[in-house]
């Protein structure tokens, strides 16, 4: 098995995600990364994100438009977001609404659930008020 390289760029991507307090797209990560490393290539950010997702250090979700977003992975936390279609704000669910469903699935089918994601799309209060939705 080959050793995993821990490059400055990989550490930067992880640091940006850890310090963001919210999930970010690759484009957002790149815009912040280039402020610290002006010569970093967009492809380097994408490659590092792909690698971090495959290693389980970063979780990947998807906006309704197909754009991926990333957050630091946590074995005890699933991805649960309400995503505003207006301003793209992501609101994290305070607790997992699918815990009972997972247990029932495991009990009735023997299927071992290792994770899930839940994304609900709509409009936040501010966007609803602006658009009178």
Describe this structure in words.
The radius of gyration is 17 Å and the shape is flat. By secondary structure, the protein is α+β, with helices and mostly antiparallel strands. The chain folds into two domains: 1-73, Orthogonal Bundle (Arc Repressor Mutant, subunit A); 75-133, Dna Ligase, domain 1, CATH 3.30.1490. The chain has helices at residues 8-20, 26-36, 42-54, 99-109, 125-131; strands spanning 24-25, 58-62, 68-72, 79-84, 90-92, 117-122. It has a three-stranded antiparallel sheet. Strands 5-4-6 form a three-stranded mixed sheet, with no helix packed on it. The model has no long low-confidence stretch (mean pLDDT 86).
Core attributes:
133 residues, alpha+beta, Arc Repressor Mutant, subunit A, Dna Ligase, domain 1, 2 domains, three-stranded antiparallel β-sheet, three-stranded mixed β-sheet, 5 helices, 20% strand, flat
Blueprint of the fold:
Elements: H1 8-20, E1 24-25, H2 26-36, H3 42-54, E2 58-62, E3 68-72, E4 79-84, E5 90-92, H4 99-109, E6 117-122, H5 125-131
Parallel strand pairs: 4-6
Antiparallel strand pairs: 1-3, 2-3, 4-5
Helix pairs in contact: 1-2, 1-3, 2-3
């Amino acid at each position: 098995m080959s050793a995993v390289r821990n490059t400055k760029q990989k550490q930067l991507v992880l640091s940006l995600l850890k310090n963001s307090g919210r999930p970010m797209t690759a484009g957002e990560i790149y815009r912040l990364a280039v402020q610290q490393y002006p010569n970093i290539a967009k492809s380097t950010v994408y490659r590092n994100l792909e690698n971090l997702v495959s290693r389980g250090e970063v979780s990947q979700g998807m906006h309704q438009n197909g754009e991926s977003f990333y957050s630091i992975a946590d074995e005890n936390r699933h991805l649960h977001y309400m995503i505003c279609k207006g301003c793209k704000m992501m609101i994290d669910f305070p607790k997992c609404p699918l815990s009972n469903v997972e247990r029932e699935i495991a009990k009735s089918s023997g299927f071992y659930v290792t994770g899930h994601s839940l994304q609900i799309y709509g409009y936040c209060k501010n966007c609803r008020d602006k658009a009178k939705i």
